[in-house]
Design goal:
The structure is a homodimer. Helices cover 41% and strands 15% of the residues of chain A. Chain A is of the alpha/beta class. At the A-B interface, helix 1, helix 5, helix 6, helix 7 and helix 8 of A face helix 1, helix 5, helix 6, helix 7 and helix 8 of B.
Chain lengths: 456, 456
């Protein structure tokens, strides 16, 4: 018999009542059953334990149990004491039924081609498993509000190797991902005006709006943000300089210099979304904006596309005063990333497995990019935008994008219309789809379906 | 040689420059070293790979490398190619030094006696390890914004068994703990007036203030919130009915009824902090407030004290319309608890291991509570408050609390002055300390030190 039921069954007797104790007990137990708090098959406390807890005679409890047994509510079993009659299913009320029912997960589309989903087929290697094994058995205690010191050191090392950026780990705050990082950062503003790229990453642009800030759409071409005519009344500017989202261009050096000068003159904070910058296929990577203007730039990093979105962990690299401010805020609001997750990630990064994995995946993604180029670049009625990095492709189409999206959905493929990336009007007609997460054969089939949907 | 360095070393040649290519290369590599982007011992790209990437002749790269080797920057090794001279440590600039330095974790006190820390010595049993092993290898994909459906079902089952509460899993939102849950909930208010208990849980009361809401301190006695004279202009009221923090009393049934009536009449949302309600030693547990007023109460739950704070996971149980509103908000701002953590917790709860563990720990905590009672209840110049549940004790002292706290700190013990739990004046003189997390022998020693510090 589970003694948790002894101490938690919400039975309250009223000694002043004219109803006898056994009758009070039977009524209350029937009531608990009707409410679903007790279910068929549940063990009930022994008569001795319940009598002790309630401070009544054991005889009163025996009388009550005998009555309930006679009514068919209780059964005696050999070995495991008295239980609620397992055949009482018809008594179970609707409300209780709901508790047991597993809420069905909404059926995912047959094949999710959202941009940014990495290939995780070979993620769970021995280094990954060992990192979680150690972390769940011995999670570190009393970790700083900004995040585990070892993890912040490993993130600094990751930035040095992957992005050529040298930084003090004290400038890093561990986050639950890019969106949580942006949400935390925006707390430092009361009501701000935030410039965003149009087109831009919809999942980040919705955040300032939801938090009550004002958005300002800024024109963007295939090389990224156009910097010649920027407004001077922005509090912050959110952009994707290493790999414009969705077009994929890298902000040219001249624009970067102009941007930093403008930010200095207009006293604007730059928020650099460095999403999948580790995955570059052509050209020389330019260093992050934060290397040019470390006192004015916040780098928004995530391990979603280089490891897996399922870990829900990222980081902010901040100017030192802002890092201190956000660490204090973390101290009050709490660090949402658990010590187990932080320790596992730190161990995994320290093992060098991520560097080896990124190497391997770069080759895999480069191959898949070639497949996309081969199949779609000479398609009549469509124009494939160059894919310089990342995990997704942009295909400009003659057929209306909504028609293409709908057709592909009928075939079980989920792609996105390019118009989803614009705040307002002015969108080109086309689709965006990820090519990173599925194997080459699946990709082949996907591309054939896309080609067919466009030509039809 | 690591090919990640081949593709990411930020080398940019200017073909239009009058400086020869080899000289441009040597200058840039020296510069990368000075900045710490390259460190002693790092491999550099092979001459062939670098020449290919930069689109220059291999001879230019060989000339540059020869020059750098002559200057002592590069070393050739058998087997692993060319590397940065490992003896270059004196060149490493301060900034780069910092990157490698592990930021020291602030030294924890010898023994942390903060309230609410559970005993985690035996947590990592086979069910726990198996749950994380499965979750890290095969995390679920595409989980709902409110949280993994299986986890929400298991939380509903947990509430049914531990708290006698029947609820629909659709009313549950997974959170990164009580603080994150409260922060999310408070987003539904623009600028609100929030009533809080005085004394109350400091770590929660700081949150509304930090988010720009107004706090109203409400008087509390040893049974919990005093309900006779509540203001009518509150938007929400945060309270600990099952186990008042720090005093430990449970809100009597009559006050609960009065409170719910007041909330109905004044249209106030009740926020029920159900912290460590699973751990009760005496008396009959009253059902949560949310059972009395499900359409008006938000239950703030956490697995910190029944499992471990290191998992950073909790939940909100909400009125249905508020649950839908917060699920939408989660969809925009992101779910901070990763799928790996959610899946591990769901599996662990489904295994029944937490119920068995809670049973065991209740016995352990009950024993430790008896030890505290034995050692401190008859102490001259001190009065131990009754411990009805939870993991901490309140000791009223004649010696000023600051003196006691200071003395114990000198002996390596961290306890808290009771005054820390008040927003304003009116605090009793005493200390608060946890007795749950350390073994019985350690507790014996701790109690002897406390007795000594008070008498001295």
């Amino acid at each position: 018999m589970r003694s948790d039921l002894v101490s938690t069954l919400p039975l309250v007797l009223n000694p002043a009542s004219t109803t006898p104790i056994p009758a009070q007990l039977t009524a209350q137990i029937r009531n608990l059953l009707a409410k679903g708090i007790l279910s068929p098959g549940d063990p009930v406390p022994s008569t001795r334990a319940l009598a002790n807890r309630l401070g009544v005679s054991r005889g009163s409890v025996v009388t009550a149990y005998d009555q309930l047994a006679a009514e068919g509510y209780l059964s005696s079993t050999h070995g495991s004491g008295t239980i609620i009659n397992p055949n009482l299913h018809q008594l179970k009320p609707l409300e209780a039924e709901k508790t047991h029912r597993k809420t069905p997960t909404p059926a995912p589309p047959l094949l999710n081609l959202d941009p940014g989903i990495p290939d995780t087929a070979t993620l769970a290697d021995s280094a990954w498993r060992a990192a979680w094994r150690t972390a769940c058995a011995n999670p570190p205690q009393n970790i700083p509000d900004a995040g585990l010191a070892d993890l912040r050191s490993e993130i600094a090392e990751h930035l040095r190797r992957m992005r050529g950026l040298v930084c003090d780990p004290d400038r890093i705050i561990v986050t639950a991902g890019a969106r949580e990082g942006l949400t935390l950062l925006l707390r430092t503003f009361a009501q701000a005006t935030i410039g965003v790229e149009a087109p831009g990453y919809p999942s980040l642009r919705r955040i300032p709006e939801t938090l009550g800030h004002h958005l300002r759409d800024l024109p963007t071409d295939s090389n990224g943000l156009m910097v010649s005519d920027l407004p001077t009344d922005l509090d912050a500017l959110l952009l994707t300089p290493s790999h414009q989202y969705p077009y994929g261009g890298s902000l040219p050096a001249a624009r970067r210099t102009a941007l930093v000068n403008w930010a200095e003159n207009s006293d604007t904070l730059l928020i650099e979304d460095d999403f999948d910058s580790e995955l570059r296929y052509v050209g020389m990577p330019l260093p992050p904006l934060t290397a040019l203007a470390p006192d004015r730039t916040v780098l928004l990093g995530t391990f979603s596309s280089v490891i897996t979105p399922q870990i829900a962990c990222g980081y902010l690299l901040l100017p030192t005063p802002l890092a201190h401010q956000l660490a204090q805020l973390r101290g009050i609001l709490g660090q949402p990333v658990g010590a187990i997750t932080q320790a596992a990630l730190a161990t995994y990064l320290a093992s060098g497995a991520l560097r080896r994995r990124t190497q391997r995946l770069r080759r895999v993604y480069r191959r898949r990019r070639s497949i996309v180029n081969e199949r779609l670049s000479a398609l009549p009625g469509a124009q494939l935008r160059p894919i310089d990095g990342g995990l997704h492709a942009v295909l400009i189409t003659a057929t209306p994008a909504e028609v293409v999206v709908e057709k592909l959905a009928m075939r079980g493929l989920q792609v996105t219309a390019l118009s989803q990336y614009w705040g307002g009007a002015g969108a080109e007609n086309g689709i965006v789809f990820g090519f990173g997460s599925h194997d080459d054969d699946t990709l082949d089939w996907v591309l054939a379906e896309i080609a067919d949907a466009i030509s039809a």
